[in-house]
Amino acid sequence: MSVRRWLWDNVESLLFAGLLALSIWMAGVSAADPIEERVFPSPISITYRGPADGLLVVGDEPNDARVTVRAPASAWERLTAGEIQVVADLTALGAGRHGVPLRASVEAIGARVTVVDPIQIDVTIEQASERLVPVRVLVTGETAAGYRTESPTVSLTAITVVGPASLVEQVLEATATIDLAGTDRDLDLSVTLRPVDAAGQLVPGVEILPPIARVGVDVSLPGGFRSVAVLPLLTEQVQAGYRVTNVTVTPPTVVLFSSDPAAVASLPGFVLTEPISLASATATIQHRALIDLPQGFSAVDEPSVLVEVTIEPILSSITLSRQVEIVGLAPGSYAQAAPDVVSVILDGPLPVLESLAPEDVRVVLDLLGRPVGIHQIEPEIIVLPQGVTVRTLLPDSIEVTVSRTPFATPTPLP
C-alpha cells in the first residue's frame, strides 16, 4: 500500500490526533499563564481628536475613563497605563450636541480592551468667535490719610475675547482691579484682565488676548501736606547682659498739615516721638508713643505710633569643670572614672551663664547593667536652666573600671 493511499485512508484519525494535541497544548499554556479580565487600576486619560478648524468644545469634557482589559497573567504583570489608549474622535462633528463613543486599544501582545466606562461622552461643539471689548479699571481701598489720586491710566483700551460664540457674546468688558488701601506713592502695576458679563460676573471658557495690562495711578499730597518718617526717641540703657536687636515703628510715616507753606517747605523729613525709656529693660517693649509735632503742624491721622523695641539677652559661652557623678552601680561593686573631672562648654544668655550654680550643671555616668571590667561610656550632661545648651564636652567619652574590690581611692556610691 502506498503512503499516499495510507494517508488518505487515515486522514480523519490524523486530524483528530492533531486537534487533540493542540487542545492539550492550549490547556497546558492556559494553566501556566491563565487569562485574566479585570479593570485597569488607574484611570486612562482620554485623547481628544478635533474638532475641525473654526469649531470649539464648550464646557468641561471628561478627562479620563476606566477600562477593562483581558490579557494573560504574564501580560498583566508588565502592563502600564502608557500602553492603553482611549480616544474621542470629534473631527467629523459639526456644531451642536453630540454623543461621542470612546474607542480604546491596548498595545500589549495578547491583550485587548473589553469594556470602556463610560462607553460614550456628551460634548457640545460651537462655532469659534472673537470680538473686541473695552477695558475698565476697578479701584478698591482708600489711600493713606491725606493723599489723593488721579484717574488711573491703562495701557490697553480694548482687548480681543476668543472662544465659543455663545460665551463670547456674554462678555461685556475686561476689568483690571487695583487696590489703593494705604497707598502713599505712585503705582505702576501689571494686572490680569478678567472677562465679565453685564452683571460683573466672570465668564469662564473664553480667552483674553492679551491677558495682562499695565495700570498706572498718580498718588500725591495736596498743598500744605507733608509725609515724614517717624523716629523713636529711645533713652537710657537696657540691663547689663541684654541688647536691643530691632526697633519697629507702626506706621513708619505720618502725614502732617500746616497752613504755612514756608513751614511745610522747611520741615525736615522726620519727626521724633516722645521719649521712651529702656532703663533696666530685659524683655521686648511695646509702647504707644505720641508724636512730637512741630509748632504749627497737626497730624492728618492718629498723632501716635506703636513702637516695638526687641530686647534679647546677649549670647555667650562659658567653660565649667565638673566632677563626674556615677549612678546605677551594682551593690558590692566599685567604679573608677578616668578622668573623674571633665570640662563642659555651654552656650546661652550671658545673665543666665553668669548665675549658674554647681547643681545646675551635672555630668552623670550611668553604670546600670555594666559588668566587672573596663568600659568606654558617653556621659549624660544635665543642664537645668532653660536656653542653655551644651556645645562641647572634654573628653566626650570616659573610661570607667568596674571592680568587686575597692580601689586605692574608692568612688563613693551616690
Low-confidence region ranges: none
CATH domain topology of the largest domain? RNA Polymerase Alpha Subunit, Chain A, domain 2
CATH architecture of the largest domain: Beta Complex
Give average pLDDT, whole number.
Answer: 86
**What is the rounded distance between the termini?**
115 Å
Overall 3D shape: flat
Helix content: 10-25%
Number of strands: 33
Output the structural class: mainly beta
What is the C-level CATH assignment of the largest domain? Mainly Beta
How much of the residues is beta strand, in percent?
over 45%
CATH superfamily of the largest domain: YbbR-like domain
Rg over CA atoms, rounded to whole Å, is 43 Å
**Major sheet summary line:** 7 strands, mixed
Number of helices: 6
Instruction: Work out the count of structural domains.
Output: 5
In words, what does this structure look like?
- By secondary structure, the chain is mostly beta strands.
- Helix content is 12%, strand content 51%.
- The strands form 8 sheets. Strands 3, 6, 9, 12, 13, 15 and 16 form a 7-stranded mixed beta sheet that branches. Strands 1, 2, 4, 5, 7 and 8 form a 6-stranded mixed beta sheet that branches. Strands 31-29-26-28-32 form a 5-stranded mixed beta sheet.
- The chain contains 6 helices and 33 strands.
- It folds into 5 domains: 3-32; 35-118, RNA Polymerase Alpha Subunit, Chain A, domain 2 (Beta Complex), CATH 2.170.120; 128-220, YbbR-like domain (RNA Polymerase Alpha Subunit, Chain A, domain 2, Beta Complex); 225-313, Beta Complex (RNA Polymerase Alpha Subunit, Chain A, domain 2); 315-403, RNA Polymerase Alpha Subunit, Chain A, domain 2 (Beta Complex).
- The protein has helices at 3-9, 11-32, 73-78, 165-168, 261-266, 350-354; strands at 35-39, 44-49, 55-58, 64-72, 84-89, 96-101, 103-106, 112-117, 120-140, 148-149, 153-154, 158-164, 173-179, 187-192, 194-196, 207-209, 212-217, 219-220, 225-235, 242-250, 253-257, 270-277, 285-290, 298-299, 304-313, 315-327, 334-338, 341-349, 361-366, 373-377, 380-383, 389-394, 398-403.
